[in-house]
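Holo model, manganese (II) ion. Inputs:
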Amino acid sequence: MQSYTEENYLKTIYHLAEKTTNVQTNAIAEQMQTKPASVTDMIKKLAEKGLVDYIKYQGVTLTEAGKNTAVDIVRKHRLWEVFLVNKLNFKWDEVHDVAEELEHIKSIELIERLDEFLGFPKADPHGDPIPDKNGRFAKTQFIKLIELKIGDSGTITGVSQHSSAFLKHLEKLGLTLGKQIQISDITDFDGSVEIKLSDKQINISREVAKHILISSNGKN
Amino acid sequence: MQSYTEENYLKTIYHLAEKTTNVQTNAIAEQMQTKPASVTDMIKKLAEKGLVDYIKYQGVTLTEAGKNTAVDIVRKHRLWEVFLVNKLNFKWDEVHDVAEELEHIKSIELIERLDEFLGFPKADPHGDPIPDKNGRFAKTQFIKLIELKIGDSGTITGVSQHSSAFLKHLEKLGLTLGKQIQISDITDFDGSVEIKLSDKQINISREVAKHILISSNGKN
DNA sequence: AAAAATTTTTAGATTTACCTAAAAATTTAA
DNA sequence: TTAAATTTTTAGGTAAATCTAAAAATTTTT
Ligand SMILES: [Mn+2]
Ligand SMILES: [Mn+2]
Ligand SMILES: [Mn+2]
Ligand SMILES: [Mn+2]
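Output:
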């Protein structure tokens, strides 16, 4: 049984490992809002428990056991987010912090019944995939909106930035999950992207376009 | 902001104060499954934070602030129990431990929306009253089944013992919340109670009868 | 390949929530 | 009203998770 803190470290390492092969002490520290010295302490402990492989100065990787725990926490986090949005009418930008706490509730029964209650959802309110109870989930193959060319179209199926400010901004623009979009123009001057929605035409910055994930349904 | 541990102490003191005026160190220790020395440590800390009034060797009482926190935890505990039973199909004997964790999730929004989602329930699955968001709730006026006389009738509206063993036993006997009962006899030999239910007649021990709470609807 | 910059670890403390053993206070019984 | 039993507190320590400051290792730049 892992502590709340250990679970958060494992989850952080798991997410960092999705981006970089070599997970560094400083990166973990930044993500966990703590100091590198504290991270070193914790890594040693996790290594002793067989949850990570660790070589001094070489960063960490999760062991099979460590990855299993991490994926389980991710599963709980995302299921609770679905609950908050679908059942309690939270907005997609309001759920993260509460899910951050709820993910640590220790009861297998609870999470399985919650999963069933929610209808075994496959994705959370941000489009991230929800692992099943065996930890399996499809590797989603999204394209960043910024990578699309003029004329390409697709459906918004995820975001790669979960800050409240970003999500609120998307909401205001009408860029929510499931929306059909088509690239009508890409501005030479600043690289901003002109998008055609079903009912309107909008312009978004490169920065915003970078963090919108599209499941492409046809290039031109 | 209180820690998980502080919240549990406050809740324990609150419940003990419902039974005895003077809440003793040893009683808290037993309830919290810890040692009296640890309780003394914590009491001092809570006193410093203004959550309890404390005079050495004289036991503790909650301050207004302490009582507010305690009632808030009780509210959360009971609302989560309702959620588990009504929405996730847990049995009334399976919910306590999970609610013991869930009650510490810190989000006012969460609990208010949960309350609404559940339809603002007035009682939890064990018949205990749920405080509203201002901490107010009706002092329930139950009678212990053991105190009824032959011929008295009423409705089962609560239990004063929450152990899984006891609750499972009641379930098996068909003595669940809302059931109409009438006392048909009280055995001279062992004081056991003969009860008439709508569909059958059963006999329960004094020990069981002590912990069933009845809202009486007419003595004879 | 040195020097400089960055990253990571160690050393030594702190805080929180515990513990055991022993001392002190209070309550109950003789 | 002493003596005995019980309750409560104090003293001194431990373990988990954190911190700061300084040392060590690695990487990047000149
Ligand atoms: Mn968390
Ligand atoms: Mn999410
Ligand atoms: Mn609790
Ligand atoms: Mn209850």
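Residues 24-26, 36-37, 39-41, 56-57 of chain A lie near DNA strand C (CB under 10 Å from a C1'). The beta strands of chain A are 52-54, 60-62, 143-144, 153-159, 180-186, 193-196, 201-204, 212-216.
Archived with the compound record.
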